[in-house]
Write a structure and sequence with these properties.
The chain has one domain. The chain is about 10% helix and about 25% strand. It is elongated. A three-stranded antiparallel β-sheet has the order 2-1-3, with no helix packed on it. Strand 1 and strand 2 form a beta hairpin. By secondary structure, the protein is of the alpha+beta class. It binds zinc ion.
């Protein structure tokens, strides 16, 4: 499972990170099939496995409550940054 990028509190790097979106590839906890979730912002990256329904079997992730059962979460198996139009085109 790829590591989530470290997000510093408040910097220009953070702001530019937050403007980007990612495609996250998840593996369903129920049927083990893969599906992709597009247009995920950095803020929701870690949430995607917890809130996304499986497109194949419809399984919903479930977070265990304290002392009550176990979590059933999809697994992030890949993620890639989506291409966005660069803010300033390099002059050539
Ligand atoms: Zn599934």
């Amino acid at each position: 499972m790829p590591q989530l990028p470290y997000i510093p509190d408040n910097s220009s790097a953070t702001r530019s990170l937050r403007e980007k979106t990612w495609t996250v590839v998840l593996r369903c906890h129920a049927c083990n099939r893969r599906f992709a979730v597009a247009n995920v912002t950095i803020d929701r990256l870690a949430l995607a496995p917890q809130v996304t329904h499986c497109v194949h079997c419809g399984a919903q992730p479930r977070l265990a409550e304290a002392g009550n059962g176990e979590s059933r979460l999809h697994v992030i198996i890949d993620m890639r940054q989506e291409k966005t139009s660069p803010p300033k085109a390099p002059s050539s």
